[in-house]
C-alpha cells in the first residue's frame, strides 16, 4: 500500500468513528449505557432527573442574540454619580453606562481661567481607586499634569464614598 492510500483509509476511519460517536443519544430502552450518561441511567432506573444539565446549545450566532433581562451595567453607580457631580462644570457629550465611559467637553471650573475637558472610564464595579481612570486635557495645552489628574480622581472617589455612606451601604 502506498502512503497516500493508507492516509486516506486512516482519515476515513477517523471520520467514521466521529460520526458513530454522535449517534448514541437516541438508543432504545435496555441498550447498554455509556459511562457518564446520567439521563439514560435515570430513565432506566425510573429516577427523576436530579441533576439539571445547563443548556449547552451554543453557537457563534448566540453572541448577537439579546436575552431578556441580561442587560447588566457593570460599573459602580457611586463612582458614576460622583463623576457627574464633581465634573458638573463640564458639558456632557456622551455617556455609555454599559462600558462605563463618560465623555465631557470643554468647560472652565468655577474660579478658574483655564478650560478643561475630561473622559472618565469606570472599569470595575468595585468602589476602589483601580476602578476609575480620568483623562483630562486643557484647551490648546494638551494633557494636564499628573498631580491635577490625581486630584480630580481623588475628589471623585471621595464623593463616591460619601454617596455610598449616605445611601447606607457602608
Architecture blueprint of SSEs:
Blueprint (H helix, E strand, L loop, with lengths): L2 H19 L16 H7 L32 H10 L5 E5 L4 E7 L8 E7 L9 E7 L3 E2 L2 H21 L4
Antiparallel strand pairs: 1-2, 2-3, 3-4, 4-5
Distance between the termini: 77 Å
Do you know the CATH topology of the largest domain? Answer: Alpha-D-Glucose-1,6-Bisphosphate, Chain A, domain 4
Q: What number of structural domains do the residues give?
A: 2
Helix content: 25-40%
Rounded mean pLDDT score:
76
Order of helices and strands: HHHEEEEEH
Describe the structure.
Residues 1-17 form the signal peptide. Keywords: Signal. The chain has helices at residues 3-21, 38-44, 77-86, 146-166, and strands spanning 92-96, 101-107, 116-122, 132-138, 142-143. With 170 residues, the chain is α+β, with helices and mostly antiparallel strands. It folds into 2 domains: 3-53, no CATH class; 77-166, Alpha-D-Glucose-1,6-Bisphosphate, Chain A, domain 4 (2-Layer Sandwich). A 5-stranded antiparallel beta sheet has the order 1-2-3-4-5, covered by helices on one side. The longest helix has 21 residues, at 146-166. The protein is elongated and about 90 Å long.
Amino acid at each position: 500500500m502506498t502512503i497516500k492510500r493508507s492516509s486516506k483509509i486512516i482519515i476515513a476511519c477517523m471520520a467514521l468513528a466521529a460520526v458513530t460517536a454522535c449517534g448514541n443519544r437516541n438508543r432504545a430502552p435496555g441498550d447498554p449505557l455509556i459511562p457518564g450518561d446520567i439521563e439514560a441511567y435515570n430513565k432506566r432506573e425510573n429516577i427523576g432527573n436530579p441533576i439539571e444539565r445547563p443548556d449547552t446549545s451554543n453557537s457563534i450566532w448566540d453572541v448577537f442574540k439579546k436575552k431578556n433581562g441580561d442587560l447588566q451595567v457593570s460599573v459602580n453607580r457611586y463612582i458614576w454619580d460622583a463623576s457627574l457631580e464633581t465634573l458638573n462644570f463640564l458639558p456632557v457629550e456622551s455617556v455609555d453606562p454599559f462600558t462605563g465611559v463618560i465623555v465631557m467637553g470643554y468647560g472652565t471650573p468655577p474660579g478658574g481661567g483655564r478650560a478643561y475637558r475630561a473622559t472618565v472610564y469606570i472599569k470595575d464595579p468595585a468602589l476602589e481607586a483601580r476602578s476609575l481612570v480620568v483623562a483630562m486635557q486643557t484647551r490648546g495645552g494638551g494633557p494636564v499634569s499628573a498631580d491635577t489628574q490625581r486630584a480630580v480622581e481623588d475628589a471623585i472617589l471621595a464623593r463616591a464614598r460619601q454617596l455610598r455612606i449616605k445611601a447606607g451601604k457602608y
